[in-house]
Amino acid sequence: MTAARLRARLAAVAAERRAALIVYLTAGDPTPAATADLIAAAARGGADVIELGVPFSDPSADGRAIQAAMERALAAGGGLAAALDGVRAARAAGVDVPIVLFGYYNPIFVYGVERFAAAAADAGVDAALTVDLPSEELAELAEPLAAHGVGVIPLLAPTSTPARFAAVQALAPAFVYYISLTGVTGAAFDAARVAGDRIAAIRAATGAPVAVGFGIKTPADARAVAAVADGVVVGSAVVERIGAAGAAAPAAVEAFVRELRAAL
Questions:
Q1: Which residues contact 204 (CB under 8 A, 6 or more apart)?
Q2: Which one is catalytic: 37, 51, 85, 126?
Q3: What is the DSSP letter of 137?
Q4: Domain region containing 245
Q5: What is the SS3 assignment for 67?
Q6: Half-sphere exposure at residue 72, Cβ-oriented, CA atoms within 13 angstroms
Q7: Number of separate domains in the chain
Q8: Other Cβ atoms closer than 10 A to 154
Q9: Within the chain, where are the H helices?
Q10: Could you tell me which of 54, 68, 136, 252 has the fewest CB atoms within 10 Å of its CB?
C-alpha cells in the first residue's frame, strides 16, 4: 500500500472537514524496542500520520528537545536500521496508520539509496522526508522510492520561491510540509505568523495538501493552525513528554495525542 495508504488517509480526513494530525516521534527514544509501542500509542490517541525521526549525530534543523531525543536514541543503539525495524514491528502488531520516515540524507546515502528504498517498502514505510535534500535534488531519492511504491514529502518555508513550488509540484507529493518559521524545531510558536494566504498559495501552486509544523506545542496551537492548514505537525512537545515519562511514555503519548486530536 505504502504511499497509497497515506493519500487515502489524507483524503478521508479532508472528507471529515478537519485538518490531519501528524505526530512526530524519534525512533529509538528511549530505546529501539520501545518504538513500535510508541507508534501504536500515538495511533490509538488519534494520530492520522506518524512522522518517525531517524536519529542522526548532527541534527542541524532540530531544536534542543529533538536533539536530546536523538542523543538518547543513538546511545541506546538507534539508527536507520533500527527505525526500519520499529516500523516493521508496528506493522506486525497491526498498526495501519501511515508512517513517514523523517530525517537527514546522510544515513540514507550511507545505507544505500536503492537498498533503503527496498527496505522502507518492506518495512511498511509510506513516505520519506529528508530535511537537508532540496526539492530540486529530491529526484535521486524519489525515483528509487517510487519504484517501490514509497513517496517523498518535500519541505517548503516562508522563504521558498515560486521555482521551489514548481519543483515540488513535479514530485506530486501526498502532502507538503510547510515550516511555519525560519529556525529550528521547538521554537516559540506564534499563530499570527502562520499566514493563511501563504498556505493557500502553496496549495494552489503544488496541487498538494499543506501540513504546517515547527513550534506547535499545545492543543490551542494546533487548533489555530488547523483553521488554515490541511495538516498540523506536533513534534517537540511529544518528544518532551517521552523524555519525562520514562516507562510510562506510551500512556503519556496516547493521552497527549488525544488532547491534540480533540482540538482539531
A1: none
A2: 51
A3: G
A4: 3-263
A5: helix
A6: 23
A7: 1
A8: 27
A9: 3-15, 35-45, 64-75, 80-92, 105-111, 113-123, 139-147, 162-171, 196-206, 219-226, 236-245, 249-263
A10: 136
Single pTM value for the model: 0.94
Residue 30: cis peptide before it, omega within 30 degrees of 0 = yes
- Whether 62 is a known active-site residue: answer yes
Place of cell 517510487: 146
Q: Which residues contact 61 (CB under 8 A, 6 or more apart)?
A: 104, 131, 132, 184, 185
Q: To which residue does cell 493563511 refer?
A: 196
- 10-residue mean pLDDT profile of the chain (264 residues): values are 87 97 97 97 98 89 85 96 98 98 96 98 98 89 97 93 91 93 53 76 95 92 94 95 94 98 96
Residue 215 is classified by DSSP as S
Q: How far apart are CA 2 and CA 14, in angstroms?
A: 19
Whichever domain contains 251, its CATH number is: 3.20.20.70
